[in-house]
Write a structure and sequence with these properties.
alpha+beta, 7-stranded mixed β-sheet, 3-stranded antiparallel β-sheet, 14 helices, 17% strand
Length: 382
């Protein structure tokens, strides 16, 4: 450093700089120097210096430097200049302050508060439990008002609750609604069999379908009553279908029967790794379509049960010549409530016939399903 001359000496004044020393380094606290703010407070002739960050506050009271035995000077030199200025600085040590700068003074405790504190520190177990219980039962009036205002705003419109409930119900219906092409002009295009079962999977039932076609009425009693009657209609002499069409329809009915057997299977049996409801291919098809598989369990939630019931109804509509299903008989066979069976039939696109309320038919074009919410019902799924 070149030799410089002292141009000016600045004595101690209110505008003198402060030389601050932090008890804890700002770098150790990972504090950005650009986010440090300085504050100067004066009260009753005393000055308080505070440095605030987003994590803590450093503060120190400025002492009277007139009685100090030494002075601290800072040399100030401009760049490319040989003249310097000596300025007296006030050294201060900033310590961490736990209180905020705007923290109000602590109020004096009342008699009841003093008793409560004494009970918490020196009371018996019974007194401590009673004190803690009273503190937990205290209600913050401000918080209660905020919750009430939020609740009132949420239910301000009488339609809000029903709209939210309708949205939840509609999403659940869409989760188990069967594949339907509502813009189709024919039944086969509206309900494509390949969307429900492939030809390879349907051929798994072909062997048993041939046996049932020539079996006696007693031999087909293993099926549910409605499917048994449908197979009996295909066996009758009045049926004008070809043998291949009959075998195909019986195979579809057997697939519906397997789905029904799956619904009747106990939940504990589904978790068994050796579980087999038909052939391995059909069993895998059933579990992939109507179950939720996890690492350890096979779950069958209510939405999956409704989906399986919808598939059974669609398969029954497929094998019917006029695409008509008697929901009352289906409800008895599947052991379902009649109201739920008819609701699921409407989900599948069916409408009740004018002659009978239990007979439902598929008519084109297939309308969109509109959910009717029962406000008194607590059940969320159909």
């Amino acid at each position: 450093m070149p030799v410089c001359k002292v141009k000016e000496v600045l004595a101690n004044s209110n505008s003198s700089p402060y030389l601050a020393n932090f008890e804890s380094s700002l770098q150790q606290l990972n504090i950005d120097h650009n986010q440090v703010n300085a504050h100067v407070f004066e009260k009753n002739g005393k000055r308080l210096i505070a440095i605030s960050t987003d994590k803590c506050v450093y503060s120190s009271q400025v002492s009277d430097s007139e009685n100090d035995l030494c002075r601290t000077l800072i040399v100030i030199r401009k760049k490319n200049s040989r003249k310097v200025v000596l300025a007296e600085a006030k050294p201060i040590t900033l310590s961490v302050s736990k209180k905020s700068l705007n923290t109000p003074e602590k109020k004096a405790l009342t008699v009841s508060e003093n008793i409560r504190e004494l009970n918490k520190q020196f009371g018996t177990k019974k007194a401590k439990r009673a004190t803690e219980l009273r503190e937990r039962m205290k209600i913050d009036i401000g918080t209660v008002k905020e919750h009430l205002e939020t609740t009132i705003a949420a239910v301000d419109s009488p339609l809000n609750a029903s709209v939210i409930q309708e949205g939840k119900e509609t999403n659940e219906v869409q989760s188990y609604q069967p594949p339907i092409n509502r813009d189709a002009k024919t039944f086969e295009d509206a309900f494509n069999l390949h969307d429900y079962i492939t030809d390879t999977e349907l051929n798994e039932f072909k062997k048993d379908a041939k046996k049932l076609l020539n079996a006696t009425y007693d031999d087909i009693q293993n099926c549910c009553p409605y499917i048994t009657e449908e197979i009996a209609k295909l066996q009758s002499e009045n049926c004008q279908l070809s043998e291949n069409d009959k075998i195909r329809r019986i195979s579809i009915l057997l697939y519906a029967q397997v789905i029904d057997n799956y619904l009747r299977t106990p939940a504990l049996q589904l978790r068994n790794r050796s579980f087999n409801i038909y052939t391995s291919l059909i069993t895998e098809k059933i579990l992939n379509t109507f179950a939720v598989k996890t690492d350890k369990n096979v779950l069958r939630p209510l939405s999956m049960r409704d989906k399986a019931s919808c598939y059974i109804l669609v398969l029954l509509f497929m094998v019917s010549d006029r695409h008509v299903v008697d929901t009352e008989e289906v409800a008895k066979s599947l052991k379902l409530p009649l109201s739920k069976t008819q609701q699921l039939a409407r989900v599948c696109g069916a409408r009740p016939m004018a002659k009978s309320r239990s007979l439902y038919e598929i008519k084109l074009p297939i309308p969109e399903f509109k959910l009717v919410i029962n406000k008194t019902s607590k059940r969320k799924t159909l």
